User: Which sequence fits this backbone?
């Protein structure tokens, strides 16, 4: 190797030469590993891109209805754009190669009837940088971007006067600012509207196409799908950062909900799952919800997400979480059981047959929730004392009553099952009352999942695993913004304006959190 051979020409003692040789060798090996890693990533993305293109152009063999085909087309366009964007991030030289040739012959002009808001971008100086003489205007470079307000489209007209120096024949104009999609006609406001409509309002892209058409604006589904894919890739670092902050907390809520995923070639769907992890509102810190889209409900997905995280995990009685609490784990979590689930067993029993036993259980559990309501606005220390004074005596009395009632209840019936569910999980159910910061139930994460479950009635299924992961990432940002009292659309528009030039070291400042939380994070 030439670099190592050149060391022999240096006048160094043997020990120094050995140390320098080892250091150079280590740096070379590290560089080679990074290159191999990037090559493998590009190879993987290229294979995925080829697969997506094969599905795209072989769609006639798919057994899909017309509506399924429309949604599937949107997913393919978004996935193709996302893969291309990821390849470009790793290897900028592949930018022109990764993008397939477009079939249409140029962009359609923006409608003349839309109002224009002109932005004039003058150079910082009217003097030539080369010789100091005054610049002379010789023309203008005009570009237009389409933007939107709710139910109102308009156009940003960017005018960049061009100036020339007669002495040195140099042309000057204000530079074009970086954008999420270079050269795209969509302004940040329009991109925010498309993503908000699709992921927060659960409107398919063909409906957005129809909305724009009513304003005599042409927005094709394929174009919007490409925007969705590229913006999804650009926002992924914010999602990764939210996950990191979530796992810094001591307590996490977890739950999952099934999602149908289209199975190309079979004309059917298969069951996937959207896993949700939420921060604890009773602890100081940012309010965060992170969604994780996975192909199944296996507990290994929760283990992979949490990795080596240790803390209190609030979950229902689903068996997939049990391995997280096993003593065989290197760093087991501490289980918190949900009183809302325990209460639900008795509620269903009482609703079915007006069971007096179930009614008594509901009354006793209601007392626990009344105490929590009393301590809602207290400090952690004050809430802990309240639980010591009131919750613990209530829990002890409830436990005694459950044991006595179970002895008098025959096995196998609904009453026995409801009682056994609570008694079996008793140690995890009462753990919250030993502190002032642990939650009593898993309702916070269930409340965040519920709007998505309702939205499934509109969009029916996801088009691919990548589409599900993209939806999970964008839902993470939108729902976190809502938890912190922010307007998701306004937040996203602001982020899309800043993100192209924003330093990675300050990425926390772009997160959808309150100003107080952001200030606290940036001071750490």
Assistant:
């Amino acid at each position: 190797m030439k670099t190592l051979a050149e060391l022999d020409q240096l006048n160094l003692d043997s020990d120094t030469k050995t140390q320098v040789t080892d250091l150079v060798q280590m740096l070379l090996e590290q560089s080679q590993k990074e290159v191999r890693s990037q090559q493998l990533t590009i190879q993987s993305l290229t294979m995925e891109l080829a697969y997506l293109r094969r599905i795209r152009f072989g769609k006639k063999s798919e057994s899909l209805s017309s509506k399924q085909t429309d949604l599937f087309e949107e997913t393919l366009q978004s996935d193709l754009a996302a893969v291309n964007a990821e390849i470009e991030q790793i290897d900028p030289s592949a930018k022109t190669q990764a993008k397939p040739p477009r079939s249409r012959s140029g962009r359609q002009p923006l409608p003349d009837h839309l109002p224009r808001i002109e932005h004039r971008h003058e150079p910082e100086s009217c003097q030539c940088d080369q010789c100091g003489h005054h610049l002379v205007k010789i023309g203008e470079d005009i570009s237009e971007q389409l933007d939107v307000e709710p139910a109102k489209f308009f156009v940003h007209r960017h005018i960049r006067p061009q100036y020339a120096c007669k002495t040195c024949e140099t042309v000057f104009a204000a530079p074009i600012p970086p954008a999420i999609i270079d050269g795209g006609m969509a302004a940040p406001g329009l991109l925010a509207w498309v993503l908000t409509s699709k992921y927060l309002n659960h409107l398919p892209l063909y409906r957005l196409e129809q909305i724009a058409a009513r304003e005599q604006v042409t927005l094709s589904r394929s174009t919007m799908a490409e925007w969705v894919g590229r913006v999804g890739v650009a926002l992924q670092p914010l999602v990764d950062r939210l996950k990191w902050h979530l796992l810094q907390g001591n307590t996490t809520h977890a739950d999952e909900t099934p999602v149908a995923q289209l199975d190309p070639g079979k004309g059917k769907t298969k069951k996937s799952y959207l896993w949700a992890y939420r921060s604890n509102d009773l602890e100081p810190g940012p309010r965060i919800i992170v969604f994780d889209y996975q192909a199944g409900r296996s507990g290994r997905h929760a283990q992979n997400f949490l990795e080596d995280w240790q803390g209190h995990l609030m979950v229902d009685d689903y068996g997939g979480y049990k391995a997280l609490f096993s003593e065989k784990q290197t760093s087991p979590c501490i289980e918190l059981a949900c009183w809302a689930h325990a209460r639900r067993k008795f509620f269903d029993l009482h609703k079915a047959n007006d069971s007096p036993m179930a009614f008594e259980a509901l009354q006793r559990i209601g007392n626990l929730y009344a105490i929590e309501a009393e301590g809602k606005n207290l400090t952690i220390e004050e809430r802990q004392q309240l639980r010591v004074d009131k919750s613990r005596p209530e829990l002890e009395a409830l436990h005694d009553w459950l044991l006595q009632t179970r002895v008098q209840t025959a096995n196998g019936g609904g009453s026995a099952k409801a009682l056994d569910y609570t008694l079996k999980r008793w140690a995890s159910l009462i753990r919250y009352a030993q502190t002032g910061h642990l939650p009593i139930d898993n309702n916070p994460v269930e409340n965040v999942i519920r709007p998505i479950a309702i939205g499934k009635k509109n969009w029916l299924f996801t088009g691919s695993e990548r589409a599900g992961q993209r939806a999970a990432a964008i839902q993470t940002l939108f729902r976190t913004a809502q938890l912190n009292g922010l307007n998701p659309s306004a937040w996203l528009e602001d982020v899309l304006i800043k993100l192209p030039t924003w330093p990675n070291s300050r990425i926390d400042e772009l997160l959808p959190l309150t100003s107080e939380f952001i200030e606290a994070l940036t001071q750490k």
In short: Residues 339-437 form one domain.
